[in-house]
Amino acid sequence: MKKLFLISTLIALVSCSDFLDESLQGIYTSATFYQTDEHAMLALTAAYQPMTFTNIRNPLWVFGDVASDDAIKGGIPGDQSEIEFIEQFTYNRDNGFLGHIWQRYYEGISRANDVIHRLGPDVSPAVKEQAQAEARFLRAYYYFHLVNIFGEIPLKTEPAYTAQDLHVPVSSVANIFARIEQDLTDAAQVLPETAVSGRVTRGAAYGLLAKVYLFQEKYQSTLDVIDDLEDLGLYSLMPVYNHNFIAGFQNNAESVFEIQHLSAQDPFQGNALNQWFAPQTENGYFFNVPTEDFVEAFELTDAGVIDPRLDYTLGREGKPWINDNDFDPSWSPTGFIQKKHLQPLSEIPAGTKGDGDLNYVFMRYAEILLIKAEALNELNRSGEALDPVNLVRKRARESYLFDENLEGFGEIPDGLLPDITTTNQGQLREIIRNERRVELGFEFHRFFDLMRYGKTYAEQRLADTNFNYDQHRYFPIPQNEVDINNQINN
Which of 20, 66, 439, 458 lies 20 to 30 A from 232 at CA? Predict the structure, then answer.
């Protein structure tokens, strides 16, 4: 299947002879570059690049997983200690991982702004409209994560034409979300229903917009846009849960938006998470390791059969590992290692471990169903909320009917993940929250969920750390940004 190839630089060839007397050849400036359809697509491709996981400069997993109750840093003690400061909420503004995600995602915003505003009159109308719609989605994606991590941040919606344009004061969280909503609404009107794998589609815009509305407790708007997504008729749950995290099933019917990676490319386009999260025995760094608390969130039957999503998500003692060997709990300080971002050595050998070609699935249809269930429940339509949440549970238990690798394949174990029947709003709320946790575990969403659930819930779940909701709801703007932007008050 074709993938979107992500190129972050343009290679310019410059003549070596008579260079003092000749105009530079092959060098583009902002005044000469954005002039053709080819230029437009190259600029757009560059705007996709910062969302990839080609190196540590995109540490979304640190904030989504390690800062939550699902994971700890892992790794060799002392290695990348700044991650542990985030895990324990003992960080300061100089923390390098705050700077990494800030710089990376604002670079994505800058590149998206260039596509939206700089395309010249010779770019064909159809290409310009499409490129700008995709760029609006990308800008919304970057801002969605930045506002959930940092809160009040500078809202930059145009290219920086002068040095003074770099100095932008922070905007309110509400204004940032309003810009995200507008970008996604505008993009959805233009984006195609289907596209080359990795390119933004209308369904991706609807999906992210539904999540944006959910995070602001705009529940009816959430349901309205999910109706738009479902009317497309394009998305369904994969029969086997873990097919969403295997290279041979990428860009499948459940995928609403996933970020592409491809190994053995120059420039580099591989997924470095394959090394960052793998056991040391496989040339990995074993970061982002699951907690016992995460494991205990999965349901057991009376006979001791556990939700199959647990062993699809992580390795644990006594269970097969991804390389046809048994998992060794000594590989991890908690006794567990997540699987969703790892490939077997038969696909990516130890020598090139950091050059994986497994995509990052940002949004799956399963999450859309859980968003729908949550919105319905919060609108006191709890009876209607049962259908979408039970669809997610049904797929999980029916893995036994479709995955011949499961012990007991062919028959669903008695009492495994029964349909939810309660319509008590409070009880169902807790069930949906736990269902999000186990269904979406290690897909970099948990910390953001904890924060939107509120002070009491977040402080209870993070009680083993120094977390204080009033102090740590948002991370501080990195010190280097405070130093260079004179419109930000320290």
Answer: 439
- Rounded to whole angstroms, the Cα distance separating 103 from 24 reads 31
What phi and psi, each to the nearest 5 degrees, are found at residue 78? 90, -20
How remote is the C-alpha of 465 from its chain's centroid? 24
On the question of pLDDT at 7 being above 60, the answer is: no
pTM of the full structure: 0.94
Residue 454: how many CB atoms within 10 A of its CB? 11
The helix (run of H) or strand (run of E) holding residue 188 is helix 173-188
Task: Please state the φ and ψ torsions of residue 72, each to the nearest 5 degrees.
Answer: -120, 170
CA angle 97, 102, 104 (to 5 degrees): 95
User: What is the per-residue pLDDT across 64-98, written as a single tens digit (0 to 9) for each?
Assistant: 999 999 999 999 999 999 999 999 999 999 999 99
Which domains are seen in the chain, by residue range?
Answer: 52-91+191-467 (1.25.40.390)
Tell me the C-alpha distance between 282 and 344, whole Å. 10
Cβ-in-10-Å burial (0-12, 13-18, 19+) of 399 comes to buried
| Residue 69: partners with Cβ closer than 8 Å, 6 or more residues away | 291, 293, 294, 446, 450, 461, 462
Phi, psi of 61 (to 5 degrees): -65, -30
Beta-carbon neighbour count of residue 486 at 10 Å?
Answer: 11
The per-residue pLDDT for range 384-424, each reduced to its tens digit, is 999 999 999 999 999 999 999 999 999 999 999 999 999 99
